[in-house]
Design brief:
The protein is an alpha+beta fold. The chain is about 30% helix and about 25% strand. The protein contains 14 helices and 16 strands. Helix 9 packs antiparallel against helix 12 and helix 10 packs across helix 12. Bound molecules: iron/sulfur cluster (2 copies).
Length: about 400
């Protein structure tokens, strides 16, 4: 995981023409990377393995709001003209199910078959700034505590990151409030900004690491002009003004600690289905469980590591019962962990403002609205009044 090289970032930006994007893919493939990135599948833009530029969501965008996601056709051929969808990169770095070991019955009992799953060497294409922040948070959780998680490390250590600065703010985005976007500032090898202007379609490229410079050297490109840099800057600046939502994070840790008995927790519990969708789609949620499975004949057993959710009763089950038996206690635990106790635990917020938990909540519970309601009850509503989005909706 090479650190961002500030000297490299000061170098002039580069231009990659659309026609040469496939060359970048080919160079990465030739270096042994499996490409992964956005593609259209089953009515959504998801992350999956990519074979070529043709697999990218050319000309697609999305409409998102609380509990709502729709694909829509753009009136241009933008490749990265959409906001984050239901998948995050954690599906590659921390897969939903991982086999830790398998064992077979033998004459002398069980024999453990040591077969760690082989991790692919990925190049992630089109990583958004909020997602780079989310990956940095999971790096801290899995790699920088007292124990290093080897399952995560083997997947994470050699990933080549191609970031995409955002040219489209989704209907649930609030990365500006969380200071995590829309421009990628760390954690990438190459960062691109897609520009469509006056019949031209190109990418402004910023090099983040020596490894990124080496890859780019093998792809046809040229130095950017001042006008091209300015055009790319305005794409990202415009996105920043179009955030659909805001969250006032002033003093948020103490705000939530002060309000652990607030009536709003009962209100949200009346709406919450405790389905766990918000935790599945969240790029920073990392709760897991371990299960032992045996086949029906008792010949083979395996231990698997799986995503879990703090919204289930079982998650906090200790002999005799569940610690968080009510939906109220589970929602409060989740939101307070994201925005308050996470800061004590890891020195950063657990929320990067991607908006996935808002879009994919079946009953449209909105974390920004829940914070706003609690803050407003303390008489600070004015400081969290938000603005108007591009559709003029009060936010
Ligand atoms: S907040 Fe929404 S997504 Fe999360 S558990 Fe409750 S109903 Fe499900
Ligand atoms: S809590 Fe919601 S908005 Fe924040 S990072 Fe998780 S999914 Fe994104």
């Amino acid at each position: 995981m090479p650190e961002l090289d500030t000297a490299l970032r000061r170098r002039p930006k580069k231009i990659l023409d659309l026609a040469n994007l496939q060359d970048l893919f080919s160079v990465l493939s030739a270096r042994g990377y499996q490409l992964a990135g956005p593609t259209v599948r089953e009515g959504a833009i998801v992350y999956d393995r990519l074979a070529s530029v043709q697999d990218l969501p050319v000309g697609w965008s999305d409409e998102q709001d609380g509990g709502t996601y729709r694909l829509r056709r753009r009136d241009d051929d933008a490749i990265f003209g959409f906001a984050v969808g239901p998948h995050s990169w954690k599906k590659f770095l921390l897969p939903p199910v991982t086999t830790l070991w398998r064992a077979k019955r033998s004459d002398n009992g069980f024999k453990v078959i040591d077969k760690p799953e082989k991790a692919l060497r990925y190049a992630f294409i089109g990583v958004r700034s909020c997602e780079l922040h989310a990956i940095a948070i999971q790096d801290r959780v899995f790699l920088k505590g007292p124990y290093t998680d080897t399952v995560y490390l083997t997947r994470r250590e050699d990933v080549f990151m191609v970031a995409a600065n955002c040219g489209h703010a989704g209907g649930a985005c609030f990365c500006v409030s969380m200071e995590t976007g829309p421009r990628a500032t760390s954690g990438f090898d190459l960062a691109l900004t897609e520009v469509l202007a006056s019949e031209r379609h190109y990418f402004l490229l910023e090099v983040g690491t020596e490894r990124g410079a080496e890859v780019l050297a093998e792809v046809q490109h040229r130095e950017a002009t001042a006008e091209e840099e300015q055009a790319a800057d305005s794409v990202v600046a415009r996105t920043a003004t179009r955030m659909a939502r805001t969250m006032d994070t002033t003093d948020i840790k103490d705000l939530l600690y002060r309000n652990r008995e607030h009536p709003r927790w009962d209100d949200v519990a009346d709406r919450c289905l405790t389905c766990g969708n918000c935790t599945m789609v969240c790029p920073t949620c990392f709760c897991t469980t371990v299960e032992d499975i045996t086949d029906l004949k008792g010949e083979e057993a395996q231990r698997v590591w799986k995503w879990d959710s703090c919204f289930t009763m079982d998650f906090s089950y200790i002999h005799g019962g569940s610690i968080r038996a009510s939906p109220k206690s589970r929602y409060r635990q989740w939101m307070t962990h994201k925005l308050a106790t996470w800061i004590d635990q890891f020195g950063t917020s657990g929320c990067v403002g991607c908006g996935r938990c808002i879009t994919w909540c079946p009953v449209a519970i909105d974390i920004t609205e829940e914070v706003r309601a609690i803050r407003a009850s303390e008489g600070n509503a004015a400081s969290d009044a938000g603005g108007a989005d591009e559709r003029g909706k009060k936010i």
